[in-house]
Design brief:
By secondary structure, this protein is mostly beta strands. It has two domains: 28-88 and 95-105, membrane protein fhac (Ubiquitin-like (UB roll), Roll); 188-421, Porin (Beta Barrel), CATH 2.40.160. It contains four helices and 20 strands. The chain has helices spanning 42-48, 59-71, 247-254, 259-266; strands spanning 28-35, 75-82, 96-105, 109-118, 122-131, 140-150, 177-187, 195-207, 211-224, 232-245, 269-281, 292-302, 314-327, 331-344, 346-349, 352-355, 383-384, 392-393, 402-409, 414-421. Strand 5 (122-131) and strand 6 (140-150) form a beta hairpin. The termini are far apart. Mean pLDDT is 77; it is low at 167-173, 386-397 and 412-429.
């Protein structure tokens, strides 16, 4: 507003604003004109986008269609606007509006590379190749590879060992980690609100001072109602491989101390699991949120009925809630709570029944992605295992809630932190 009159006397500056709104008839979507396509099929675009001819016009549908088309990964630019800027005024005129979808296609293939260093994973490199609109239908094919703990293998002298886990000693299971994955993603699967995913994975993964797992497997997931406030993902995964842990882990936690029984647990086993994940995402930024909340609930069932061996039979549930509050313009207060439990099926080993849960399926706490201020997997009871180095080894974290609260500044320095935990008494051997 440029001009206004001030009241005479008193020095009070005041402006009165009047809005004159004339509601018109409810409009429906008419023709949807799509321009700028070069290689992508028009039918694919119409199947993915939210706009449908004949439905009531909503401004949100224009924004959602723009997000839908960007999500395909093949467009550098997407603009969805009304082609009719003025509603029809004549009585009995057509009550539909035309929509213009203007797109600009980008490269169909992408390459990505990355590298980094961490005190636990040491040097790591990763790369990938993606094909968008693979064989048409808006599907995408992604090939990814990752190698970590480069230079950290204690059995081979690389000259870089002093940079990797400098306080971790010589933990023999911290070997070279790798993963190679292939993922096929199909949006608008069975419905434009659903997304289907198929994946294959070959990996070696080790958790610091706990276990090493080598496996090959695949997964199939279906995400329902991706545009709703509570999308639900239903999935099934199967892998075949082995999980190796220290002899003290099997003896102290599971009371399985004879070498024959331990060797049985180290053998290759099939692991089939059905899962349900519910997500509620209300943050304002995916990478660095400053306001909103995010909540996740995950349920997993593994049994012989769905392909698991006897060593992998359990029910697991976990939840996580995080909340962010802006404080002024330069800081954020955030808290996070996470909890879960595992209900294992008892396994008969060496003529005794053991409530066995494989080390790679247990809960571990502590570290930058868990409870900060504690070392990797260093939250919970310790068990002293009489092996060559006579060092305490973290075995696992029993069912317990963990949480943290912190205030973040733009400099990313943590001003205050509170940690809430409940530990069980530590067992010793």
């Amino acid at each position: 507003m440029r001009n206004f009159d001030s009241e005479a006397g008193g020095g009070i500056l005041k402006a009165e604003v009047e809005l004159d709104v004339q509601p018109g008839p409810r409009m429906r979507i008419g023709d949807v004109d799509i321009r700028g396509l070069r290689d992508v099929d028009t039918g694919t675009v119409r199947r993915v986008m939210s706009l449908r001819s004949g439905t009531l016009f909503r401004q949100d549908a224009l924004y959602q269609t723009q997000r839908d088309l960007y999500g395909m990964g093949v467009f550098n630019s997407v603009n969805v606007v009304l082609a009719d800027s003025i509603a029809p005024q004549a009585p009995g005129a057509d009550s539909t509006v035309r929509v213009l979808v203007q797109v600009a296609e980008g490269p169909r293939h992408q390459l990505r590379f990355g590298g980094g260093y961490g005190s636990v994973e040491c040097f790591r490199v990763q790369g990938g190749w993606a094909a968008h609109d693979f064989l048409g239908g808006a599907r995408s094919l992604d090939l990814s590879a990752r190698v970590s703990k480069l230079g950290g293998t204690p059995k081979v002298s690389t000259g870089l060992n002093q940079f990797c886990n400098p306080f971790g000693g010589t933990w023999t299971f911290d070997t070279l980690n790798y993963s190679v994955g292939l993922t096929l993603r199909q949006p608008a699967f069975l419905s434009r609100r659903n997304v289907g995913t198929l994946g294959l994975l070959v990996e070696r993964h080790s958790e610091f001072t706990v276990f090493t797992r080598e496996a090959i497997g695949g997964n199939a997931d279906l995400t329902l109602n991706t545009r709703s406030p509570l999308p639900v993902t239903v999935g099934y995964s199967y892998s075949f491989g082995r999980t190796q842990a220290n002899a003290g882990v099997y003896c102290s936690v599971f009371r399985v101390c004879d070498p024959t029984s331990q060797e049985f647990l180290r053998k290759k086993h099939g692991f089939g699991a059905a899962s349900v994940t519910i997500l509620r995402d209300r943050v304002n930024n995916v990478l660095d949120p400053t306001e909103g909340s995010i909540a996740t609930v995950n349920l997993v069932h593994a049994s012989r009925l769905i392909g698991s061996d006897s060593a992998y039979e359990f029910n697991r549930g976990e939840f996580e809630v995080a909340k962010y509050y802006p404080i002024g313009r330069r800081s954020v207060f955030a808290w996070r709570v996470r909890g879960g439990t595992i209900l294992p099926r008892k396994l008969t080993i060496a003529a005794q029944k053991v409530a066995y849960v494989a080390p790679d399926q247990r809960f571990y706490a502590g570290g930058p992605n868990s409870v900060r201020g504690y070392g990797r997997n260093e939250l919970g009871p310790q068990v002293y295992v009489l092996i060559a180095d006579r060092r305490p080894h973290r075995l696992w974290t029993p069912p317990q809630p963990t949480g943290q609260a912190e205030r973040r500044y733009f400099a990313r320095a943590t001003a205050c932190r509170a940690v809430f935990r409940r530990d069980r008494p530590a067992a010793t051997r």
